[in-house]
Amino acid sequence: MSNEVPEKKQTPEPAPEKKVIPIEKDTLMSAATGGSLFAASKAIHPRSISGRFTNWRWIFVWLTQIVFYGLPWLNWGERQAVLFDLGARKFYIFGLVLYPQDFIYLTGILVISALSLFLFTAVAGRLWCGYTCPQTVYTEIFLWVEAKMEGDRSARMRLDKSGWTGEKILKRGGKHLIWLAIAVWTGLTFVGYFSPIRELIGNFAHWNLGNWETFWIFFYGFATYGNAGFMREQVCKYMCP
Questions:
Q1: Number of domain units in the chain
Q2: Of 89, 101, 136, 175, which sits most exposed with the smallest number of CB within 10 A?
Q3: Range of 190's domain?
Q4: The pTM is what?
């Protein structure tokens, strides 16, 4: 007789069951977005406020716009005081004349400006965003025009809900015409830093602009009109770094 113990057959262990996590629909998100992944922004009509910080904001609105719109019209001798003449490759800043090989100085100024912005934001909060950022400044200007044309917050909300009457068309149309005028003038001023602004205005009046001048006037104007008139806080929330 054999003393060998018969080997037991090993039964394979059952494979672990895969845990399936069901994907449930977010009812809160669906209710907020209407079942879509994109939620359209609702029109925000801020109330008119007054106080120390509002006064400071308007002071900076005036200061920045006087500098921006007025600087190209200043003369230094027989030339424009501030002119970045790309065609002649000369940058005129009052009595200073810079050439392409001096571009390192402009780079240094931009780096210092960026670091200063980070420093001021870290030390004193959003000074730039709240008072001198172009998005803030032009949004404030466009909101002021909107309030003058359409009334206070309650009147604007009623106008949104009302049908298209002659009064609504007049108010909305007038508002957008003023917005467009500000936007085009802003584009002209911007290009006026790169092309002599007096000649630029004359050419614009006679529609005798170059291709690059035409593009940048309307591109910058369209950006001003769209950002300050429609996107507003959406630029700060989704586009601003």
A1: 1
A2: 101
A3: 47-239
A4: 0.77
